[in-house]
Amino acid sequence: MLGALDRPSAGTLSYRGKSLLDLADPAAYRAHEIGFIFQAFHLLPTFTAIENVQIPMFENHQSRAARKTRALDLLKAVGLEQRVNHFPAKLSGGERQRVAIARSLANSPSVLLADEPTGNLDSESAKHILDLITSLHFDRRMTLILVTHDMSVASRASRAIQMKDGQVVFDGDPAKLSRHE
Amino acid sequence: MAIRQNFPGTNEMTFFDVITRGLKRRPIRTGLTLLGIAVGIAAVVALIGLSRGLVTSWTAGMKSRGTDIVVHNMRGSLTPKPFSAATRDRIAHLPGVAATCMILVDLMSVENAELMIVSSREWGCFAWENLKLVSGRMPNDQTERAVLVGTTAADVLKKKVGDTVQIETEELTVVGIVEGGAFVENGSIILSLPLLQQITGNQDKISAIDVRVAAGTNDAGIRRLCEEMSRLIPEAHAEAAGEHLAHTEGYRVISAMSWGTSLLAILVGVLGVTNTMLMSVFERKQEIAILLALGWKRSRIVRMILWESAMLGLLGGIIGVGLGVIGVHLMQAAPAIRGLLEPDLSVNLILMAVTIAVCVGVLSGFYPAWRSSRLTPSLALHG
Fold first, then answer.
1. Same structural domain, B303 and B327
2. Which is nearest to B240 in space by CA: B220, B214, B215?
3. Average pLDDT for B296-306
4. Is residue B100 part of a domain?
């Protein structure tokens, strides 16, 4: 809901003091304020890595050259400078998620929403991806909201909100999360 | 900068790339859809080209004879109805009329040709002047039982000078092979008026009067003369050469049938593209949802689908024009119509066909585009 993908049936939802329910242009909000990282990567299979990263930039009215340069820079930032022209099918799970992360940063969003970003990865790749996301969070000063079932992932956050059956059952220091559970 | 130098082959991506990639993902389906549109457009090009060719080739034939006005009575029927030859005297001396030539023309089955133009002309009139002998000679006089054969007709009938040709029950000698300066003339058998009148039992009857107007007469002058002649010969109509055919019942029927068949073919094309684009939208539901989640506006999704659809139309149109042109040339060589008419494959017709194809594409894309715009971005979270 924070990503304006769906609307709440009740209650309020606001971003920087403005109600998301009253957004005149939710697409523009998604394009410029939110970066999505999905569990299943959701790369477009008919586009190469660099093309996938450029997809969100179409709403930015940048020149073709600027889009390409930005996409190359982002792929370099996630360590994929050698894989820019590969199609998703030719990339490993970890590499795909890196492309997805580069794509989520395309329009320099304020908030990164990561939905189980390591859920489909082996433990080593998961660790690398998590390191990457947290370093981006600090280096680029972006808010990171990460959904996970993995306590070791949750423990790296500065704040944890635990939900059970649609109810918030914990909100606080992740160090206390395991005790609460 | 260093990165860019490392990847000189990396292409900048445009919205157009997104569209073409959408079409390329299912090449067989895209190919079959293109073929569906192409067949429809080929039908438009072939049928409309041939029916228009009927007018243009006859008009060219008349122009090559130097005919400006035709007095005829083809309007109410599919074939010209002969009328009295005496009517010519009512218009021959009108101011602005330079010369007249009585014509009796018929479409007949001649030997191995199912349909052939047999054109008889008043002896010595201007309609003989444009005929250039390729071999042989002109008939000696109007009573000689002789015919001239146009070059295409000679080819179809396999005749040379000295052979005989059978028209109805009469055997006539081919005395010359002629080049008439127009497709219709080259596909005709040409003989003197009294001879054909006698063969067909149309004594003192003609099917047209070709009129040559005085030099310097403009279009308005020709129209005025036509009105005057139509008034003087109420059993027939006078019209500018070429126009007369477009106004006939026969041409209208042919034209309507051509358009009817073409529209059916186009309808099939519309259904084909709609089906393809709908399937494409259903298959790509999640992808479209991802694009929405990544910030694409619904209007951009709609544009993407409409452009894909229009692109199918454009490519199908181009292929269709190619198929149509090839088809027309194959049909032209068919024995039944060889030498009878020349297709009018003008730039206008080709542009019209491609425009129709693009419209078919866009029209077919509306519903799938609307469906795609109804998808919600939250679908991206599934799977």
1. yes
2. B220
3. 93
4. yes
Question: Which tens digits make up the pLDDT trace of B229-265?
Answer: 999 998 888 888 877 677 777 777 888 888 888 888 8
Q: What is the pLDDT of residue A137?
A: 85
pLDDT, one tens digit per residue, over B182-214 is 777 888 999 999 999 999 999 999 999 999 999
pLDDT digits (tens, 9 = 90+) for B277-293: 888 888 888 889 999 99
CA distances (Å), B196 to each of B79, B121, B170, B177, B340, in order? 17, 9, 10, 18, 19
Tell me the residue range of the domain where B109 lies. 68-240
**Partner residue opposite A68 with nearest CB, options B10, B298, B380:** B10
Q: How far is A179 from chain B (nearest CA, A)?
A: 31
Whether residue B338 has pLDDT greater than 80:
no
**B14 CA: distance to closest CA in chain A (Å):** 7
What's residue B106's pLDDT? 87
Residues from B in contact with A at Cβ < 8 Å:
3-4, 6-7, 9-15, 17-18, 21-22, 24-25, 286-287, 290-298, 300, 376-378, 380-381, 383
Return the pLDDT at B76.
58
- My answer on whether B134 and B196 are in the same domain is yes
Query: Which of B3, B4, B12 has the most A C-beta neighbours within 10 Å, making it the best mutation to test the interface with A?
Result: B12
Q: What does A131-160 look like in DSSP terms, one character per residue? A: HHHHHHHHHTT-EEEEE-S-HHHHTTSSSE
Contact B375, B280 (CB under 8 A): no
- Confirm if B293 and B8 have CB atoms less than 8 A apart: no
Q: Are residues B96 and B218 in the same domain?
A: yes
Instruction: Provide the pLDDT for residue B4.
Output: 41
Same domain, B85 and B46: no
- Using a pLDDT cut of 90, give the percent of chain B over it: 45
The Cα–Cα gap between B127 and B191 comes to 11
Residue environment code for B274-298, b if the CB has 16+ CB neighbours within 10 A, otherwise e: bebbbebbeebbbbbbbbbbbbbbb
Could you tell me what percentage of chain B is helix, strand and coil, using 3-state DSSP and rounding each to the nearest 5? 55, 20, 25
Q: What domains does chain A contain, in order, with CATH numbers?
A: 25-148 (3.40.50.300), 151-181 (no CATH)
Which positions in chain B touch A68 (Cβ < 8 Å)? Answer: 4, 10-13
Which of B240, B273, B299 finishes a domain?
B240
pLDDT of residue B10: 56
Q: Which value does ipTM take for this structure?
A: 0.88
Q: What percent of chain A has pLDDT over 90?
A: 28
How many domains, chain B? Answer: 2
Is residue B236 within 8 Å of residue B73, measured between CB atoms? yes
Residue B26 in domain: yes
Q: Inter-chain contact B21–A47, Cβ cutoff 8 Å?
A: yes
